[in-house]
Write a structure and sequence with these properties.
This protein is α/β, with parallel strands linked by helices. Helix content is about 30%, strand content about 15%. Bound molecules: 2-acetamido-2-deoxy-beta-D-glucopyranose (10 copies).
Length: about 675
C-alpha cells in the first residue's frame, strides 16, 4: 500500500500512494447520487456539507425508527452512515439525528408583497398557511453530508454489503470486522452567509489575478415574448397598455439539481405555452388594440429572482416596457391538481382598497368569468379576506398597484403534497400512459392531465383575447391538447424526443436528456430556459425560407427587422427514414431578459428587499462504499507498512554496487496516483 510517492497528491495533506488497481479493488463508487449542497442568503447558510476529505461511517440500514435510535446511541462502532428510506426522511426521522434546530414552520419567499406598510395583518406570511405539510427541512443547515441514491440497483448493492458484513450472526451481538462502510464527500467552500462569501470573492478579485471564488449568485434568464412584435431596443410609448401573462419556471428540492417541479412549475408553464400558441393562432389576434406579453420567470423559488429583476429593469428603463404600461396582470400559479375543474381567482385585498384599482380588478374577474363557459374550467372567487398566495405578481404589486389575478387550483392550502420535493413528478399530476407504448407513442399520447391543462390554456387564451380588446366571439380559440401532452412529456419525462430535437439549434444537443430538472443553477442559460425559448419560438413563430447565413446574422439585412424579431436556425425534423435533418429558420418574438437578483447588480449583499441566494462552490462530490478492518488490524497493517517503508528507504540510500548485467537498472517506481476526477462546477463566464 505504501510506496513512497508523496509529492504529487493534490490533497492538502499528503496521503500514502494508493495504486489505482488497489483503489479499484477496495472502493465501489456510487455512480447515481445527488448531494444536498450549501446555499447561502444574506444571513444564513442552509444545506449540507462533509468534512474536507469526506465523512466515513459504518453503514446502518434504517427500516424503522428503533434502528435509527440504535445507530445513534447503542451501536458499538460509531460513527454510523445511515441509509434511510424516503418515507422515513421526514421531520420525525430527522429529529432523531438531533443536530439541526428546527423552528421554521415552512419557508416561503417572504420578501413578497406583505409587510408592515402593506397589509401588516398578512406580513411575515401570516394570514394563510399555504403549505402545512412542508417540513422546512430544505431550509435547515446540516453539518454532515446527505446524499440521495437515485438508482435502486445501487441501493441494493449497499444493502447486500450491509447484510453480508454488518448484521451479526447472533442477533444482539456486535458484528465482526471487516465491516461495510461508506464515505460521502461534499465539502463546501463557502460558509456563513452571502455577505461573507461575496466580500471575500470581491476582495480577492481586487487584489489577485487569480481570484478564488467560493460562491456564485443563483441566476438565469426570464423568457418573454409578445403577441405583436415589440422593438427590443426601443421603448413602448407611456400611454400604451399591455396585458401581462406570467408564470414561473423553476423549482427546487432538498437535493442539488433534483427539481422535477411537475405541479409547482411545469403544469403551469406548459398551460401558458399552450395559451400563447392558441392566442397567436386566433383570427384577428395581430390586430388587437392591446398587445399581450408572455413572461416565464426563472429563480422564483429563491425569493423571486426573476420577477424582482424584471420590475427593477422596468423601473431603470432597461426593458422596452415600464410598469405603467401594464394594464392587467394574469398569473398561473399551481394549476394541475384541480378539484371539480375549479380554478380559484386570487386577488390582493390591500390594493383593492383603492376604488379605482378595485373596479379594474372587478372588470378583470368579469372577463375571466365570461371566458370560462365552454372552456371546461369553472372559476371561483376565494373572497377579499385572503392574501395572495406566493406569486410573482406580488413583486409587481410592491412597486405599483396593478390590477391582477393569480389563478390556482387551491383556495387555501396547496393541493400539492410534494411542493418543492423530489416527488413532485409526472405521477404527482396523474400522468399515466397505457403499458407497452414506445417513447415516440408516449410523446403523442394525449393523457387526461394534458386534456385538463389544455382547458386551462383555452380559458387563459380566451380571457387574454378579450382583455386585449378583442370583441369577436372567442369560442374558436382553443389550446391544443396534443401540444400540451408533448410539452408535458418533454419537460417531465424526456426532453430528448423527436419534437424537441427538431426545435433546437444544431449546437444545443447537450441540453436534451431524460428526466429534465428545473433548478435555477449558477451556469446559465439552463437547459430548461433554452428549451423554453426553442419551444415558444416554435409555438408562436413562423418558418422562413432563409439561408443559414441570413438566419444567423439577420442584422445585415434591414428587411428582416432584427430589432423586432429573433431568428433561430433550428436543426429540424429527420428527413424521412434517413439520419439527416431538414434544417430551417424560425422567426419569433421570443427573447431573454436577465434573472440575476438586483442585490448583486447593486452589490448590496445584505439586501432584505431582493433575493441574495448564492450557491457554494465545491471541488469533489462523491460517494463510495468499502470494507473497513478493525482498528487493531489497521494498526498492524500500518506498522508493517512502516517497516517496509524503512527497509526500502534503507535499500535506496545504501550505495549500490553497479551491476554489470543491468547497467541502467533502477529501483522500480510505483505508478503515479491518478488525480481523482475533479467535479468542480462550471464557473460562470
Ligand atoms: C435566509 O434564510 C433563512 C432560512 O430560510 C431565513 O430564516 C432568513 O430569514 C433568510 N434571510 C433573509 C435575509 O432573507
Ligand atoms: C437493475 O438490475 C437489473 C438486473 O441486473 C436490470 O435488469 C435493471 O435494468 C437494473 N435497473 C437499473 C435502473 O439499472
Ligand atoms: C459504478 O461504476 C463503476 C465503473 O463503471 C462500477 O465498477 C461500480 O460497480 C458502479 N457502482 C455501483 C454501486 O454499481
Ligand atoms: C427600434 O428602436 C430603435 C431605438 O429607439 C430605433 O432606432 C429603431 O428604428 C427601431 N426599429 C424599428 C424597426 O422600429
Ligand atoms: C388609487 O390608485 C390610482 C392609480 O392606480 C391613484 O391615482 C389614486 O390616487 C389612488 N386613490 C387613492 C384614494 O389612493
Ligand atoms: C442539461 O442536460 C444534460 C443532458 O441531459 C445534462 O447532462 C446536464 O446535467 C443538464 N444540465 C443541468 C444543469 O441540469
Ligand atoms: C438522444 O436521443 C438520440 C436518439 O434519438 C441518441 O442518439 C442520443 O444519444 C440521446 N442523447 C442523450 C443525451 O440521451
Ligand atoms: C413546430 O414544430 C412542428 C412539429 O415539429 C412543425 O411542424 C412546425 O413547422 C414547427 N413550427 C415552426 C414555426 O417551426
Ligand atoms: C427558398 O428560397 C430559395 C432561394 O431563395 C428558392 O430556390 C426555393 O424555391 C425557396 N423554397 C421555398 C419552399 O419557397
Ligand atoms: C421508411 O421505412 C419504412 C419501413 O422500413 C417504409 O415502409 C417506408 O416507406 C419508408 N419511408 C420512406 C419515406 O422512405
Amino acid at each position: 500500500l505504501f510506496c513512497g510517492s508523496w509529492g504529487s497528491f493534490p490533497a492538502p495533506f499528503p496521503r500514502p500512494c494508493v495504486g489505482n488497481s488497489v483503489e479499484r479493488k477496495i472502493y465501489i463508487p456510487l455512480n447515481h447520487t445527488a448531494p444536498c449542497v450549501r446555499l447561502l442568503n444574506a444571513t444564513h447558510q442552509i444545506g449540507c456539507q462533509s468534512s474536507l476529505s469526506g465523512d466515513t461511517g459504518v453503514i446502518h440500514v434504517v427500516e424503522k425508527e428503533e434502528d435509527l435510535e440504535w445507530a445513534l446511541s447503542k451501536g458499538p462502532h460509531p460513527p454510523y452512515m445511515i441509509l434511510l428510506n424516503g418515507n422515513l426522511f421526514s421531520r420525525s426521522g430527522f429529529l432523531g439525528l438531533g443536530t439541526p434546530k428546527f423552528g421554521i414552520k415552512s419557508h416561503f419567499p417572504c420578501p413578497g408583497l406583505y409587510s408592515e406598510e402593506h397589509g401588516p395583518e398578512f406580513a411575515h406570511c401570516n394570514g394563510s398557511v399555504w403549505n402545512p405539510l412542508g417540513s422546512g427541512v430544505s431550509y435547515e443547515d446540516f453539518p454532515f453530508p446527505i446524499f440521495l441514491l437515485q438508482d435502486a440497483n445501487e441501493t441494493e448493492t449497499i444493502k447486500e454489503c450491509f447484510r453480508a458484513h454488518n448484521v451479526p450472526a447472533v442477533p444482539g451481538a456486535a458484528p465482526q470486522f471487516p465491516l461495510c462502510a461508506m464515505q460521502l464527500q461534499s465539502h463546501m467552500h463557502a460558509a456563513a452567509s452571502t455577505v461573507t462569501c461575496m466580500r471575500r470573492s470581491s476582495l480577492q478579485s481586487t487584489f489577485s489575478i487569480n481570484p478564488e471564488i467560493v460562491c456564485d449568485p443563483l441566476l438565469d434568464y426570464n423568457v418573454w415574448s409578445s403577441l405583436q412584435p415589440i422593438n427590443a431596443s426601443g421603448k413602448v410609448e407611456p400611454e400604451k397598455r399591455l396585458i401581462l401573462a406570467a408564470t414561473r419556471v423553476d423549482s427546487h428540492s432538498f437535493f442539488w439539481n433534483v427539481a422535477p417541479g411537475a405541479e409547482a412549475a411545469v403544469g403551469s408553464f406548459v398551460s401558458l405555452l399552450a395559451a400563447a400558441q392558441a392566442l397567436q393562432a386566433a383570427p384577428g389576434a395581430l390586430g388587437l388594440p392591446q398587445n399581450v406579453l408572455f413572461v416565464f420567470f426563472q429563480g422564483e423559488t429563491f425569493d423571486y429572482i426573476g420577477s424582482s429583476r424584471l420590475v427593477f429593469d422596468m423601473e431603470q428603463e432597461k426593458f422596452p416596457l415600464r410598469l405603467e404600461n401594464i394594464g392587467a396582470f394574469l398569473e398561473l400559479g399551481q394549476v394541475s391538481l384541480r378539484n371539480d375543474s375549479v380554478l380559484w381567482m386570487h386577488t390582493d385585498p390591500i390594493s383593492r382598497r383603492n376604488q379605482s384599482v378595485d373596479s379594474q380588478v372587478r372588470d378583470l374577474l368579469d372577463v375571466l368569468n365570461r371566458s370560462s363557459p365552454g372552456s371546461g374550467v369553472s372559476l371561483a372567487d376565494p373572497g377579499v379576506s385572503q392574501p395572495l398566495p406566493p406569486s410573482s405578481f406580488q413583486r409587481f404589486l410592491r412597486a405599483r398597484s396593478i390590477p391582477g389575478v393569480v389563478l390556482s387550483d387551491h383556495r387555501g392550502q396547496f393541493h400539492n403534497r410534494y411542493f418543492q420535493s423530489i416527488y413532485d413528478t409526472a405521477e404527482n399530476i396523474g400522468m399515466h400512459y397505457p403499458e407497452g407504448l414506445t417513447p415516440e407513442e408516449q410523446l403523442e399520447f394525449v393523457t387526461e392531465t394534458a386534456e385538463a391543462l389544455a382547458q386551462v390554456g383555452t380559458l387563459l387564451a380566451r380571457a387574454l383575447f378579450s382583455l386585449a380588446g378583442g370583441t369577436d366571439p372567442t369560442e374558436s380559440i382553443r389550446a391544443d391538447p396534443k401540444t400540451v401532452t408533448r410539452l408535458l412529456y418533454g419537460f417531465l419525462l424526456n426532453s430528448n424526443n423527436s419534437w424537441f430535437q427538431s426545435l433546437i439549434k444544431p449546437d444545443q444537443k447537450g441540453i436534451l436528456g431524460p428526466f429534465p430538472q428545473h433548478y435555477v443553477a449558477v451556469a446559465s442559460p439552463t437547459n430548461t430556459t433554452q428549451l423554453l425559448q426553442a419551444v415558444l419560438g416554435n409555438l408562436t413563430g413562423i418558418r422562413l425560407n432563409l439561408s443559414r447565413e441570413e438566419c444567423q446574422d439577420p442584422g445585415k439585412n434591414p428587411a428582416l427587422q432584427s430589432e423586432l424579431y429573433e431568428y433561430w436556425w433550428v436543426q429540424g425534423p429527420l428527413d424521412g427514414n434517413s439520419t439527416s435533418r431538414i434544417p430551417g429558420c424560425v422567426r419569433s418574438g421570443v427573447r431573454l431578459s436577465p434573472a440575476l437578483s438586483p442585490a448583486f447588480e447593486l452589490r448590496r449583499w445584505d439586501s432584505r428587499e431582493f433575493s441574495t441566494w448564492t450557491e457554494s462552490r465545491w471541488k469533489d462530490i462523491r460517494a463510495r462504499i468499502f470494507l473497513v478492518a478493525s482498528r487493531e488490524l489497521e494498526l498492524l497493517t500500518l506498522s508493517l507498512g512502516m517497516l517496509v517503508l524503512l527497509l526500502s528507504l534503507l535499500c535506496t540510500f545504501i550505495p549500490r554496487i553497479p551491476n554489470p548485467q543491468f547497467p541502467n537498472s533502477q529501483t522500480p517506481k510505483c505508478p503515479n496516483p491518478q488525480i481523482p476526477n475533479s467535479q468542480s462546477q462550471i464557473p460562470k463566464s
